[in-house]
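Input structure tokens:
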């Protein structure tokens, strides 16, 4: 061969090369030593469809079409492959990587910046700065990078540590630590996850033990276990199998929590809210039905439909919508029961029953009953009782000095 030139379709054995190395199309390069290695001080230029049956190190790697490295690849600066693929059977290390079609690394992959037009596949660990892939990113080992930007799908079968993620399609990981996550389709974490922000257009499914900040989901959000968060805004359904704790939770459709739910701020559910344990919030607003072991709010509970609890509902202000149904006691400073609603026991300073409400027992300082109301139990008050014509009592109301305890 001419010095530093490997002819096309030839097979040559090299050791170290001073300067650049040119490799013709469909050539095979073998190395010397154990393991076989070729060390190039300059740039390796590859015409295409070449195989390096050895470890390879160089300043740069510049090629066309498909290139295969049957060993380790260490490039001190840049790897660039036009109109082709790069396959590395060992570890790979480079600062910048630009490949039009795909890159497959069977070992560990270390880099500063990666730009792949089609697919990136790493069997070992992935460590570096920025990953930009047009199609899909598939990794078996742990991934620790500054950012991942993928147009299609991402599948990582180990934990991740990534500051910024932007994926057009779907993403599945095994937990870890992420900063901002922006997914167009669906997002799945099969292990516990720490996060700053999750923004997904479709669906999200998380394992238990996740802790993080804001969650914004267009479709459904499911957690298999406990969850700690800052704010959740979901257009469809939220299902948390255990307990949850956060600031605000806004659900357009249905909420189901298998344990307790503790919020420092507001719970806003457009449809049905079901909390098997204790529900605690600054404010509770439910458009449809509320089921809870116990419901406590610092300020207001407003429910358009029915409330069913084991230990009752308590707030500064409780409002039940028209034709609403309440099972369990109501405890409040002020309780407003809208037309044709049905309630059991109400304990409040101020109680108002609008037209045609049916109640069991009323205990308050000031009680006002509109026409058509029915009280099937007893009425006790300390200050005033206003009853419109047509109100019926099972027992004569009693003015008392002290109200009974709401046990």
């Amino acid at each position: 061969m001419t010095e530093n030139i490997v002819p096309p379709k030839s097979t040559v054995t090299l050791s170290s090369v001073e300067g650049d190395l040119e490799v013709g199309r469909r050539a095979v390069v073998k190395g010397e030593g154990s393991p076989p290695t070729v060390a190039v001080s300059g740039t390796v230029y590859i015409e295409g469809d070449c195989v390096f049956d050895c470890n390879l190190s160089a300043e740069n790697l510049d090629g066309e079409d498909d290139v295969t490295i049957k060993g380790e690849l260490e490039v001190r600066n840049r790897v660039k492959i036009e109109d082709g693929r790069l396959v590395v059977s060992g570890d790979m290390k480079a600062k910048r990587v630009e490949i039009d079609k795909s890159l497959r690394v069977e070992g560990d992959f270390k880099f500063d910046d990666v730009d792949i037009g089609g697919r990136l596949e790493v069997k070992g660990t992935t460590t570096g700065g920025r990953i930009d892939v047009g199609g899909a990113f598939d990794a078996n080992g742990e991934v620790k990078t500054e950012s991942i930007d993928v147009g299609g799908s991402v599948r990582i079968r180990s934990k991740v540590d990534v500051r910024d993620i932007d994926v057009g399609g779907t993403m599945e990981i095994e937990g870890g630590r992420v900063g901002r996550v922006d997914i167009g389709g669906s997002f799945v974490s099969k292990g516990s996850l720490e996060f700053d922000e999750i923004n997904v257009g479709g669906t999200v499914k998380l394992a238990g033990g996740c802790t993080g900040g804001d969650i914004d989901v267009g479709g459904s959000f499911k957690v298999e276990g406990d969850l700690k968060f800052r704010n959740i805004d979901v257009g469809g359904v939220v299902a948390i199998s255990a307990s949850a704790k956060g600031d605000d939770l806004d659900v357009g459709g249905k909420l189901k929590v298998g344990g307790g739910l503790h919020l420092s701020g507001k719970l806003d559910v457009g449809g049905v809210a079901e909390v098997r344990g204790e529900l605690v919030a600054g404010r509770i607003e439910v458009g449809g039905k509320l089921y809870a072991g116990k419901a406590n709010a610092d300020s207001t509970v407003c429910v358009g439909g029915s409330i069913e609890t084991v230990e009752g509902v308590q707030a500064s202000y409780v409002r039940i919508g028209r034709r609403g149904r309440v099972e369990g006691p109501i405890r409040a400073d002020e309780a407003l029961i809208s037309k044709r609603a049905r309630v059991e026991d109400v304990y409040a300073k101020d109680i108002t029953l609008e037209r045609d409400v049916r109640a069991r027992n009323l205990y308050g300082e000031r009680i006002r009953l509109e026409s058509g109301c029915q009280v099937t139990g007893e009425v006790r008050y300390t200050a005033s009782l206003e009853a419109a014509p047509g109100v019926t009592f099972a027992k004569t109301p009693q003015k008392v000095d002290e109200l009974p305890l709401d046990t």
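The chain has no helices and 54 strands. The chain has a mean pLDDT of 96.
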